[in-house]
Amino acid sequence: MLLTGPEKRLVVSVTGPQVDDVHVQVLGAAAAGAIAELRLDLWEDPNPSALLALESRPPMLVTDRPVREGGRDSAEDAVRLARLAAAGRGGAEAVDIEISAWQAARDLDFGKAQRLVSHHIFEPGVADVDSEIARLRSAGADAIKLAVMPRDIAESLRLLESQRLIDGPATLIGMGEYGTITRVLGAAYGAGLIYAAADSGDAAAPGQVPVSAMRDLYRFERVAREGVEAWFGVVGDPISHSRSPELHNLAFEHLKLPYCYVPLRTRDLGILLEALEPHPCRGLSVTLPHKEAALRLAAEADEDARRIGAANTLTRRASGGWLAQNTDAPAIVAALGGASALSGRRALVLGAGGVARAAVRALTVSGAEVTVCNRTFERAASLTRDLGGQVVRSVGPDVTEWDVIVNATSLGMSPSVETTPLPDGRFRAGQVVFDTVYAPAETRLLMEAASQGATAVRGTEMFLQQARRQLEIWTGREAPMGAWRSRF
Questions:
Q1: Residue closest to 273 by CA, chosen among 292, 290, 297
Q2: Vertex 353 angle, CA 349 and 356, to 5°
Q3: Angle between helix 459-475 and helix 328-335 axes, rounded to 10 deg
Q4: Measuring CA to CA, how many Å separate 233 from each of 35, 129, 243?
Q5: Annotated catalytic sites, by residue?
Q6: pTM of this prediction?
Q7: How far apart are CA 291 and CA 284, in angstroms?
Q8: pLDDT tens per residue, range 144-203
């Protein structure tokens, strides 16, 4: 049966609003092997009879959400329920009835359709989940669904814990960006229905992931079929822009590992680490603004992390707590051709933030002679006091005296692609110019350096190299660099 079988099912929300949109989205659900949730409240013509009569169609769950639960149908419950009942008698495999309308629906004839009882709470914060689950289960429907709006990632992690403890067909969803993990890993924790947005339509609820991303990026079929032995994530605020999930999930697929990698947005890394205690999370990539906190909160740290003063990698220790490491420094060395290619070279580092600290650490341990230039002189001076090198207040457009130049600022990053830390820069053949910015891949700095004969090194190479080291730390396996470079 659609709602009560052991199989975990992907559900594509068909939002329309026009008839042509509805048909395209239903076909997309069928191609994905998913259930089509017909969101009648979002359609211009809320009549699913023609779709239900199609000979070749996906299983259909019919929903007509009222305004009070986040939908757009302002009609009386009697009108909405009559539509759902007609859809059930017309062949729909299941209907979704809100708990607030359950009593009014008891005496209606829904044909052979199974009944899902649901409740959607849009006020921020997760209330007493156990009480809400008990109330939904007392309705006696075939399956239950509870959707809430977490205020932080810790609340979403607690939702997953509650999901794991439920007996019977049930789905708990965290909406919004903080709730993404409940959609990506929900099936692994026992959720029966995983809702996704149609690729060609709008999301039906905040935080819905497009169906193509659920299948291709987060490998839904594998997660639903086999679960996950462990999972990993990237931590930051914001985090939706990160391409790390694409990178690591591709590696897990290539290496046939039963893992998943997810984005984790949090304002407080300490709260996240505490909430992770009961979960099989083995490692975290750490990005802004949490790199310094990652070092401070770890039980142990490697030399690079201690010297740089920040960590971009956390690994769970068997004895408890986390090991903090910094893979940015070795990634920079690798991107620049290895320590032997840097020894004795004169290097200029532009910037004095976290990436600049990693660059100076990488260059000095490789034997390079390092000079740092930053808009704020004292920050650059502080960096060199900590890690070595000398500092200059400014550099002119002629930078040919240096063998290696590293841009560790954000100048040139999208959308400000016309900016550069070296306007009218003069470069030379044999010089290596490395831009840690990786969006866009070809920055103005790199294009101008290459046009004058310098060797340009993209920031994507550092991104791949630091991820390569993370993967090796977490799994003991070599990264599929060829597969990664074909994608990035």
A1: 297
A2: 30
A3: 130
A4: 28, 25, 11
A5: 120, 145, 291, 328
A6: 0.93
A7: 11
A8: 999 999 999 999 999 999 999 998 999 999 999 999 999 999 999 999 999 999 998 899
